[in-house]
Amino acid sequence: MAKKSAIEKNNHRKTLVAQYAGKRKALLAIANNEALEMEERFEARLKLAELPRNSSATRVRNRCFMTGRPRANYRKMGISRIALRELGNRGMIPGLVKSSW
């Protein structure tokens, strides 16, 4: 189980990403538009730099929603390999068959 503070920090980052997504997208569109003047693009970059760093989507870490484990996550299910194995052994995941030979 991951530290509670690490999980909460990641959840806070997710809320900030959702909150600033529209503003960040608009500023990036202005900053990357080469048809505009250099001053306008530079001002957009400065405003973008003033936004909170944790509002960037790249700062969010994929974590297992059951245990909070940050590594070996399956995107499709949102759980770690360990949680997947435990649920599979219990027969809780439809279509997952335990292999033995």
From TrEMBL:
Keywords in alphabetical order: Ribonucleoprotein, Ribosomal protein, RNA-binding, rRNA-binding
KW RNA-binding (keyword) present: yes
GO MF annotation list: rRNA binding; structural constituent of ribosome
Listed GO biological process terms: translation
GO cellular component, one term: cytoplasm
Recorded coiled-coil stretches: none
Xref: PROSITE patterns: RIBOSOMAL_S14
Top-level taxon of the source organism: Bacteria
Subunit structure comment from the entry: Part of the 30S ribosomal subunit. Contacts proteins S3 and S10.
Purpose of the protein: Binds 16S rRNA, required for the assembly of 30S particles and may also be responsible for determining the conformation of the 16S rRNA at the A site.
PANTHER family found in the cross-reference section: 30S RIBOSOMAL PROTEIN S14 (PTHR19836), SMALL RIBOSOMAL SUBUNIT PROTEIN US14M (PTHR19836:SF19)
Family statement drawn from the similarity comment of this UniProt entry: Belongs to the universal ribosomal protein uS14 family.
Name the record gives this protein: Small ribosomal subunit protein uS14
Organism of derivation: Methylobacterium soli
